[in-house]
Structures are given as C-alpha cells and as structure tokens.
Fold ATP:cob(I)alamin adenosyltransferase.
Amino acid sequence: MLTLKRLDENDAQILIDGAAAKAREIGVPMCIAVTDEGGNLVAFRRMDGGKVTSITIAIDKSYTASAAKKATHEYGEISQPGAPAYGIASAIGGRLMVVGGGLPVAAGGEVVGGIGVSSGTPAQDREVAQAGLDAFLAQL
Amino acid sequence: MLTLKRLDENDAQILIDGAAAKAREIGVPMCIAVTDEGGNLVAFRRMDGGKVTSITIAIDKSYTASAAKKATHEYGEISQPGAPAYGIASAIGGRLMVVGGGLPVAAGGEVVGGIGVSSGTPAQDREVAQAGLDAFLAQL
Amino acid sequence: MLTLKRLDENDAQILIDGAAAKAREIGVPMCIAVTDEGGNLVAFRRMDGGKVTSITIAIDKSYTASAAKKATHEYGEISQPGAPAYGIASAIGGRLMVVGGGLPVAAGGEVVGGIGVSSGTPAQDREVAQAGLDAFLAQL
Amino acid sequence: MLTLKRLDENDAQILIDGAAAKAREIGVPMCIAVTDEGGNLVAFRRMDGGKVTSITIAIDKSYTASAAKKATHEYGEISQPGAPAYGIASAIGGRLMVVGGGLPVAAGGEVVGGIGVSSGTPAQDREVAQAGLDAFLAQL
C-alpha cells in the first residue's frame, strides 16, 4: 500500500486566488484550473473575459503538469521538431499540453497536484500560474 | 443583434458557496459546477471527498441545465422508456444528463447559466443545487 | 493537504492473480483491470480467450467502482427505468458502468482502488472480481 | 482463410517482466503495455511512481507498434516537418504515437504483438521496451 499527499479543496482556492490576483495585476482575465496528483480536477475559475477555448486548455495544462510531474513549457522544449519528444502534443486525445502555463505543485519533494492557466500569451499564462504556486508555497 | 444576460465570476462563487454550505449541512461532500448560458464552464469545486466520477457528471449536469434551459430531473421524467425523449441520455457523447442535480439559473425571466451537483443520491444532488440557486436568488 | 492510501503495484497483482484463479476454476477467460483510488489504471490482464470488447469494459468497471466508491451492480439497480439514477449509464462518455463486475477495493475503511472484470455473464464477472478482492483482503 | 500467430498471456508477462527489470535497473518506474497483433491490449503494468499520463501513452505506443508493424521512433523520423508522414502524430484521435518507446514484437518473421513503454525520456522508454523484447526473444 502506498501513502501519499494530495492538495485539498482549501489549497486549490489558495492557488487560484494567487493566480487570479496576478491576472488582475497584468490585466488579463484568465481560466485557472487546479488538479490533484492523479490529474483529476479539484477547482476551476473562469474570470470574466477568460476565453471559452481556454476552459479545456487550462484544465489540460493542469492535468499534464500534475499527472506527468513536469511543467508544460518543458514539454514545449523537448517536443520541437527534431527533439526527442516531437509529436507528443497530440497524445492522450490532445490532452497532453506542451504550451507554457501548466506547473506541477510540489510539497515536501512530492508532487501533490498541478495548476494550469490559459487565456493570455503562454508567457503570461506561465507568470500567472507561477504566482498561484508562489501563493501556495508562501503559506505552507 | 442580441443583448443577453450571463452570470459572472462572482455570481458563480455565490452559487457554489451556497451549494457547498448545504452539502456540509447534510454531510455529503460534493462536486459543484457552474456554467454560463452557453453551457461553458465558469467555476468548479470538488469538496474534499467528492467523487472523481462526479467531476464530469457535475459539469455535464450544469451544461445540460443551462444549455437546454431545463432541469436534469425533468429530462429524467421525459426520457423514460415509452416517453417522448426516450434515448436522449446518450446524446452529445453522453453529456446530456437526465439524472437530477442540474438546474438552470434564471434572472428576470431569462436563463443566465446553470448549476450541476454530483456525489450524493440524485435527491441530495438536487437539494444541494437548489440551495446554491436559492443563495443566488436571495442576493439579486 | 490530504494524506491518503492507494494500492500499489504488488497489491494490483494480488488482485489480478486472485481473480484469474477463479476465472480458470469456472472456465471463463476474463479481462481483469485494477485502478487506483483516483480511477487511473494500475494493472490489466487479458487472459487467453478474453473478449476484445471486454478490455475497455473491464477498465471502465474498475474506474467506476474506484472513482465512485460504489460497486457497478449497485449502479445497475439504481439506474433501472423509473429509479433515481436512470440514465447514468451513458455518463462520462459511457465510461460509467452499471453492469456487475466492478468492485471498490477498501482497506481500513478507505477506498484505495478498484477491480473490474469482464468477458463472462455479469454474475460471473462479479464472482471473479470478488475472488480478486478476497485474495487481497486475505493477505492484508 | 488466414492462420496467424499472436502472443499469449504468458508471453505478455515475460515482455513486461523483462521491461520492468530494466526499468528498476535504471531507476525509472515505468508504465508498460503489451498489445496483440491486432493492436488490442493484452497486459499492462504501472510500476509505483509511473506517470498517470503515461498510462495512455504506453498503451498507444504499443498499439501503434503492433498494429502498424513499425517502431514508434521510426515514425518519429518520417513525421518530421517536410518528411513524408508529417502530421501523422495526430491520426486516430492522437493514438498514433511517434515518440520512441513502442516496438513491434516479431516471431518467425511475423509480427505477433507489440510493447509500449512510457514515463522516462524517449531514450529510456526505448531501452526498457527493448529489454522486454530481448527477454521474450531469449526464451523463444
């Protein structure tokens, strides 16, 4: 039997609130998703003006980051033409996201979930996801 | 050109908070989803202990209620064997939900969104969704 | 943060071996799947002669039982025409299984995974899943 | 009428055991799938620590290798921009995998199945899949 840690409902709100605060600061309304360490959705918020396409993209960025334990922008690097993971972007019915904005959430050296952000540029999405992660880590 | 009303990010939180309060009162952790009048997800919360299968079911109950402007338990009645909408449960890749727990959210006679709840019995899901709706209507 | 228990790789083999032994005893080659408490696949075996359609059915029975914390035959009862969960069978893209043969796996009062069996009659599938569960519980 | 050879349940376990031994040796827990010559799943194992995203990826690598009778890393080469199979990575709903780690399993000049591995780098995945294949060939 394995014993493992997983972020809870309250942690998810801290992650989303932290991300949303940054999104407001940079003036880009975002879709923000939080998944547990098994890739299953815990919480989601579409800020007013967040894109409809970004609903699924944010959820899938979070899914990828938590379930693969890797930031989506790292997949972006290793999946370029000629790179080792080229072609992975369409795996799992297209759920495996290689665009920046998905980050694993770790605590005590263990991945306990993920956060995914979408609606801005990938750089903005990543900045906002990082702000959510920072808010979570600051209160651990 | 159409002008329409749609629940916003803040309304979605009021709906979810109202539903979650009732879920805690009856002791059943729930998945709670809110969609806009186009059926697109605005907010989601999986309470600690909410079922993983209920993530999709709650979202799809809310999708059905808002996009079809009809409570899912009403679809349950008209989709029984021999009834006019028999077979509709598997429509839209199974997204059209006919199990209770999805309610349209109306304001001023207009559907502006929906709420979907899953993890308890259909009666519990419906009670919790109604509590979310009541909390929303109380502050209009 | 939540702390939870999950069956491991070795537990999954015990479950499958126990089920396969019963399948051989009754002379029905089976597809046998084991998922973790989040519904994600841990192990699968198609015995020689197991049905190809049963690959997905066994996996989805295990997914349903573990992620909804309910045996699939219980869903069969509450989803009959006129019953409260009528229509749930096509939820989650048809992954929610209401045919017997999926059982949650619990240890210490906590669901830690699931087992799903398919290729025989639902009664045979359920008997074989139960044998897997019994083998697991016997060695706890 | 065709007469064909297909790996059996026991062969699948030899392939998985051989791959898992190499995965332990290199210290990377893997998802390992074995399919028959029709691309249908025969056996699967997620080692403790194997990635959740890799469940589907391992199964689809094996599916691709067995059903197309071609190693997935070979598809990686011919699907680069400008190459003849460019764009094939998203075929079959994204199931056609072009990332290394999927190998056809042949016996007597005939493809009888496939093995797919995921959770490490593509090079590690390929090495582990090859170890499974070697274990199978060694006992023929």
Summary: The longest strand of chain D covers residues 110-118. The beta strands of chain D are 31-36, 41-46, 102-107, 110-118. Chain D has one domain: 9-138.
